[in-house]
Design a protein that fits this description.
By secondary structure, the chain is an alpha/beta fold. It has 2 domains: 159 residues, 3-Layer(aba) Sandwich (Rossmann fold), CATH 3.40.50; 67 residues, no CATH class. It contains 9 helices and 10 strands. Strand 9 and strand 10 form a beta hairpin. The strands form 2 sheets. It has a 6-stranded mixed sheet, sandwiched between helices. A 4-stranded antiparallel sheet has the order 2-1-4-5, with helices on one face. The protein starts with a strand and ends in a 12-residue tail after the last helix. The site of adenosine-5'-triphosphate has 10 residues, from helix 1.
Length: 249
């Protein structure tokens, strides 16, 4: 399992968000994608999952350049992103059934996977008969995660998976990801929840000024654990010092 991103560029209204990025993801990678608000993390993900057309660049999946509908790649993809939320008019059960149909998962396999996933992530299974429009933020995230995993994706992409989850749910997601990572799977997690990222990632990517500022092992990023991850990120991003001039406070 290998995905190469070559010379990926994207601008919005003349402002470069991604500038000639080159990256390779390999099986076993659990990547924490970090960066400030507006750094381009979601744009990178959206280009990767074919929601946003890049200005330039190509994706090479297992040696094949992805073109057209990229179906071979999408079949092995699992995505959790607020940009494509679970359909609010569906019940949780219907939503998972819909995902199962999209991936042509047979009925017996579907029953087993959906039951085991929902039993793991949810306490109150009565909710599955209610429409997703009645779910809380965390419940929407969890049903979205169940949907993302249903096809047992080789590439699992999670955009802000921890945002809106209570601490118990976060623990469940982390435990699940620790179970899910394998030498033949890639997990890409864009998140600001650095301590949670640290519990699952083995590789860190930092995006800043449309470029990759850091790409390496988590242990190198934190200088063999001598820095906490937030401090390490702070060092890379070196934010401008702003002078406080609130004379009205
Ligand atoms: N559809 C769009 N039209 C115009 N500009 C956009 C669009 N989508 C994103 N941008 C701009 O691209 C830049 C990167 O946005 P993006 O959402 O990728 O950042 P991010 O790193 O995911 O941020 P955050 O951490 O806040 O989620 C921002 O300046 C944003 O305003």
């Amino acid at each position: 399992m290998e995905l190469c991103i070559q010379n990926l560029s994207k601008s919005y209204q003349g402002k470069s968000v991604l500038s000639s990025l080159n990256l390779t993801f390999q099986g076993g990678d659990v990547v924490g994608l970090l960066g400030k608000n507006g750094a381009g993390k979601s744009t990178l993900i959206n280009c990767l999952i074919d929601l946003v057309a890049p200005d330039a660049g190509q994706f090479i999946f297992n040696g094949q350049v992805l073109t057209g509908d990229r179906l071979a790649f999408k079949k092995v993809l699992g995505i959790l992103s607020d940009v494509i939320p679970p359909i609010p008019e569906f019940t949780g059960t219907d939503y998972l059934r819909f995902i199962g149909l999209v991936h042509k998962i047979d009925a017996v396999t579907f029953q087993k996977r959906s039951k085991e996933l929902t039993d793991f992530f949810f306490d109150d299974t009565n909710m599955f008969n209610k429409t997703i429009s009645q779910y809380s933020t965390g419940m929407i995230k969890k049903i979205g995660l169940c949907g993302a995993i249903l096809n047992v994706p080789s590439m699992l992409i999670l955009d802000e998976p921890f945002a809106g989850l209570d601490p118990v749910a976060v623990k469940q997601v982390i435990a699940f990801l620790q179970m899910y990572r394998r030498p033949d799977r890639i997990i890409l997690i864009a998140s600001h929840d650095l301590n949670y990222v640290e519990e699952v990632a083995n590789r860190i990517l930092v995006l800043d000024d449309a470029k990759i500022k850091f790409d390496g092992e988590l242990t190198d990023f934190t200088a063999q654990g001598t820095k906490v991850i937030s401090e390490a990120l702070f060092d890379f991003l070196a934010p401008r010092k702003k002078v406080m001039t609130f004379d009205w406070i």
